[in-house]
Amino acid sequence: MKSQQNVIYGVLIGVLGIVLFSSKAVLVKLAYRYNVDAISVLLLRMLFSFPFYIIIVYLYRKEQKETTVPKDYAWLAFFGIVGYYLASYFDFVGLTYIKASLERIILFVYPTIVLLFNKLFLKKAITKVQKLAILITYVGIVITFGSEVSMSGKDTYLGGFFVLLSAVTYASYLVGSGWLIPKFGVMRFTAYAMLVSCVCVFIHFGIFSDVDIFNFSWEVYVLGLCIAVFATVIPSFLVSISIKLISSSNFAVVAGIGPISTIILAVIFLNESLSLLQVIGTVVVILGILMVSKSKTT
């Protein structure tokens, strides 16, 4: 039985990790103010993250838990492409069209997508409580999204579509990679997948972009470094520590502060605002996700 002190530490560490993760959308939106495109910001994130994950691979080189075969590495590369490269790219593109607060609310539906994928591909039944939770969650999304469309116009549809694609690709990564993590160990698997994602971004930028990476204002590089260190690398460690201390199911409940923290940060740093209807929709989404999280433990 975990001590009360460990639980307190685990919750506090988890909250800090979620808040830092939530700051990513706000930092990206701040970078866009300097007329930088999505792939360039993503490139800076990966360039600054790359050395950290190289170090992680070296430090955890003996973490491997089970025997691996070449096919395991092929699947690892695939999930690195889908779960980190595509999910990040779709997310960054979506943020060029919609507010950071709305982006976090849409992304937050990925646990419901995981349930749907488990049903479709792994034939895992969805309970009545989970079905109700999914319905509640998407009602909340419709309320929040519909209100934003009426205020911001049709570009919101495009931005929302890309962010939803990000949630779908990330959910597919969670569903498909679960059997690989025990083979590589959590830290090695994450580091390897992130390195694959970094390489994909480097190739993408090299082929499709003609932007001079050395011609940005200094603020863009600072923001890129902050996105890499404070919104990617550090929170990934904090979340792992929190899950170890309080369990993944309890962490899923703690993660419910994600949209709230993004909204608060967006109000402070981006002067974003939500209508009363959007606040109601946000609360409905969070309640639905909490129901999903709770139902997984029963």
TrEMBL record:
SUPFAM superfamilies for the chain: Multidrug resistance efflux transporter EmrE
Pfam families registered for this protein in UniProt: EamA
Domain of life from the UniProt record: Bacteria
Coiled-coil regions listed in the entry: none
Keyword Transmembrane included in the entry's annotation: yes
Segments traversing the membrane: 7-32, 38-60, 72-90, 102-120, 132-151, 157-182, 189-208, 220-239, 251-270, 276-293
Protein name, UniProt field: DMT family transporter
Source species of the chain: Winogradskyella marina
